[in-house]
Amino acid sequence: MAIAKAERLMNLALCLLGTRRPLSKRELRSSIEAYLEAFGPGNGGGAGAGAALRSGAMAAGGDESFNRMFERDKEDLRELGLIIETVDMVDGDTGYLARRDSNRLPAITLDAEEAAALGLAAKVWQQARLAGAASGALQKLRAAGMPLADADPYESPGALEPRIAAHEAAFEPLMLAARDRRPVVFDYRKANAARPEQRQVEPWTLEFCRGHWYLAGWDRDRGAERVFRLSRITGKVRSRAAAFTAPVPDHVTVRETVESWAGENATATARIKLRAGHGYPLRAKALATHALTDGWDELEVPYGHGLDAWLVEFGPDVIVLEPAELRADVIDRLRAVAKG
Question: Rounded to an integer, what distance in angstroms lies between the CA atom of residue 322 and that of residue 312?
Fold first, then answer.
């Protein structure tokens, strides 16, 4: 929402909430600065008959534009939850007001576990762009008397605290686009590609998995669901003012897709050499491990679609022994990265 529109809606809401009697469109038009600057005071401002005749044609166009904007603003406020009453006034005009008792939110009550969950969720975002919003939300809840103590039941001195880092520049525009259901365009470099290519995506959801942020959405060019790792998005994410062309599923399996890339659902196995003291995620998935004498270990790991892309991330600390096709895929990916 543009800042000017947000300010105009806020002023209209405050005007409707602050009045003790219904206000007509003409009164609202002359009371709200945004309306006054855009359309003037309108008819009924005390001008003589001659002035009214001279400005009649100009006023008609301004009145129509104002009426359209006012109706849109009124509906936007109602969609945001403001209850606006319409009243027939004595002079036959229509008046508007928003009674405070009708628009007062019910008291918020949280038990100890719910308060602790909110506090924990806010701490998760302390390293992300949402840190300010999370902190502000907690402050408002504390001001309302919520039991959000600084030391919650699940926290102890020196305890590990959850953190979700969201340093990728693409995170915030993608999060907003997914929230607002707006398609996006960005350049994306696949692990085995030397150069990025443009992708047109309808973003569905963002999920943090295996230390990386992933976007799931509908790839318009390929006509299918795709998952993108944010760290491989290059350049700016550009949003488009258009509607989605594909339905958004009720459940998006981002984690399952990422895990399938890493061989989670594999039935075959692969043998690799892993430098001693490195590659702990691989060691955690290993079916068998044998220590070698040259500073390397031999591991047997599940082999499935996408294992080559995962192995490439470990760089020179991994050597594929077999199967031959996995070794060739890893070498091709490394060569593509070296060229890029």
Answer: 15
